[in-house]
Amino acid sequence: MTKSPQSSSGGAQLLDRAVILLDLVADGGVNGVTLKDLTARSGLNTATCHRILNTLVGHKLLARDDKKRCYRLGARMAIYGARAARGPGIISRCEVALTRIRRRTGDTIHLMARLNHDSVCLDRRDGECVVPTLTGSIGGSVPLGVGPGSIAMLAFLDEDEQEFIIRANIERYAAYRDLTADKVRRLIAETRDRGYAIDVGELIPGIAGVSVPIFSDGVTPNASLGFTILSAKLTPGTLEQYAMILREEIAAIVDQ
Amino acid sequence: MTKSPQSSSGGAQLLDRAVILLDLVADGGVNGVTLKDLTARSGLNTATCHRILNTLVGHKLLARDDKKRCYRLGARMAIYGARAARGPGIISRCEVALTRIRRRTGDTIHLMARLNHDSVCLDRRDGECVVPTLTGSIGGSVPLGVGPGSIAMLAFLDEDEQEFIIRANIERYAAYRDLTADKVRRLIAETRDRGYAIDVGELIPGIAGVSVPIFSDGVTPNASLGFTILSAKLTPGTLEQYAMILREEIAAIVDQ
DNA sequence: TCATAAAATCTCACATTATGAAAAACAACT
DNA sequence: AGTTGTTTTTCATAATGTGAGATTTTATGA
């Protein structure tokens, strides 16, 4: 959980709790999350947890894998998602931009968003040459702090929140080559100065990336737009040039 | 609302109500839905409604357009959706199939799912020649009963539920050329006999379609896979042949 | 195979939480 | 400025959700 808007407590405890659980399940990923995990992480009483989960499953917001006795996001969630993507949110606003950038450069590009401690891929266009990316296809995610797409967002949050997230993710960084909390902090500092995030083969050898944050509401960096390119294709100035392209497109998106 | 699993009443009234509202907002579409609408359609007390909506907005499951004073699906919904699409649900299971069919035939193909009284486009691959479709891009929807993609699902529901849905949609049919409830009933009967749904230029002149239902749980037709083709490209037997292709792919998807 | 542990599910008395009528604040017309 | 319709807040009331524990089901080991 983020420390932030938990316990909105406008008189809807049950709903707040349901959202906590939805979040935990969403974070749980492809493997699914078990009841025990959920009670532990949410701090909720087992019975309460169970009751809420059952209801959510009943409404198909969650699905239950009876075999593995665990919970995942449900069919209705996927449908809602498809509908939401159509509304006047980031995804549909970026759709044109993505396609246009793809045509202009021929490179792989993706739209990332923040969900709790993770950075989730919302949309992407594959480039002419297939490059391995951190997140894989739409819906894939990495811990915030990993990769330029996520650093671009992280770097422009309040320092408190940054620290909170880094702390929460600290053990997960180990899975990404020689990434550490301190390195993340250094990358953040550089990114703030530069205005955009870059990575030159530090996470996946031979693969570089540039990402620019999107301040959808003018204040909070809730999303980012970024390239993934083969380091081999880099010439001096390529990254700067790509950052400019992203900036332009984002500017066009943000002011309506 | 569907008569079905409303009021699950396992001791989570508030959650049930929240889902009702989420559904209404999702149905409301691109224009957004106002509080008044929501209270009217849900039958909930204004204060209760307002409280729930506020909480949902707080969690970004819904978003509020302060200007137009109405509610839409929120950013978090889109993110959940992206994640859900990645799990072992219909979407990811159909992904390969979609791409393969697209390569085999070169035609436009889409995956539809049922949401209340509507049929929503979950995924699609565009064909070599651009054809106009009823639903447009991902997230687009039509009332159940309109178009082969939705008839394919509707036809294999219980008769009671069919009638319920047709009644609910009856006024909306008028927007689609000369479609009427009776015509929908006739199409359903034909589809049941045939095993798949077809349309030859009756909804959009010059555009034909074939769709086969997917019984993801073995019983309920929760989704469908279908082609949209130019009538001009039709030769005798094309539709049958396409239906076979769909059947094959669906068979492969359903048993694991 | 049976015994043991662990996790999931159910039950029910209790009080915290959610409810909705009504009033207040706010917009939108005329 | 007056009037109407919509949104937001308040608060006493009770219905809803809570969670400790009992029970059942499933997993693990000997």
UniProtKB/TrEMBL annotation, chains A, B:
Residues 76-256 form the IclR-ED domain. The keyword Transmembrane does not apply. Keywords: DNA-binding, Transcription, Transcription regulation. The keyword Secreted does not apply. It holds the Pfam family IclR_C. One of its GO terms (molecular function) is DNA-binding transcription factor activity. SUPFAM superfamilies: GAF domain-like, Winged helix' DNA-binding domain. This is IclR family transcriptional regulator. It comes from Neorhizobium alkalisoli.
